[in-house]
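Could you join me in thinking about how sequence relates to backbone shape in a protein? We need material for that, and I hope you will provide a protein of your own picking. Label the sequence line and the structure token line clearly, so we can match residues to local backbone shapes. Would you write everything just below, so we can both look at the same thing?
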Amino acid sequence: EKSFEPDEKGLIEVNRLGTGFLRMSRKAYTHLWENDKKYEVQGVMGSNVFEISIWQGRELLSEDFIVCEKLIERGFKVFMDPNLTVGHIGTFNYWADVKDFFKKLKEQTNDQKKS
């Protein structure tokens, strides 16, 4: 079970993370590129690093979560920085303080354990 406590670098290990907020090492991306399914479209070769599919026959996942699942399955770790304020601009605009979110999530988890 993963903890909501940051490590010595201030990062929290997670199972999945939206790729809009993902920083990926060259080593991790190269591994995905070299080992994922290849395809060709109009003479251009690609690698299916980012895909939407049914993951392991149990749930439909977005490309964000599948990339994280692939990395973890292949021995990489996925971390998030709780000191960020993240946002989205589109049909709906929002901003979220990640540290505040994790504080509330931790409190909620502790309350559930007490019940």
Observations:
- The longest strand covers residues 38-41.
